[in-house]
Amino acid sequence: MIKCHLSKILGDKKLKVAEVARVTGINKNTLHRLYNETATRVELDVIETLCRYLDVEIGDLLEILDD
Fold first, then answer.
1. Phi, psi (5° rounding) for residue 7?
2. How many angstroms separate the CA atoms of 66 and 48, rounded?
3. Pairing relation of β-strands 2-4 and 62-64?
4. Structural domains of the chain sorted by starting position, each given as residue range(s) with its CATH number in brackets
5. CA angle 41, 34, 18 (to 5 degrees)
């Protein structure tokens, strides 16, 4: 299973999904799915944009967990 740490990162940086969507151009629904860990697929450019904007590595955003 892949865990997305977007909610923790946004909380630590005191950012809101709407603000990230506005600045990055990423669809708000896509961000909400990542935030709530309900996304089943994500485009690589979305991951890249998020990592660059949030100044994190891919491993900070996504983690593979054993089932």
1. -60, -40
2. 24
3. antiparallel
4. 2-64 (1.10.260.40)
5. 130
Using alpha carbons, list the distances in angstroms from residue 48 to 6, 16, 57.
Answer: 13, 18, 9
Q: pLDDT band at 49, cuts 50/70/90?
A: very high
Q: What region, left, alpha or beta, does residue 27 occupy, with left being phi > 0 and alpha being psi -120 to 50 degrees?
A: beta
Q: Has residue 31 got a pLDDT over 80?
A: yes
Q: What angle do CA 41, 44, 45 make, to 5 degrees?
A: 125
Of 18, 25, 14, the residue nearest 50 (C-alpha): 25
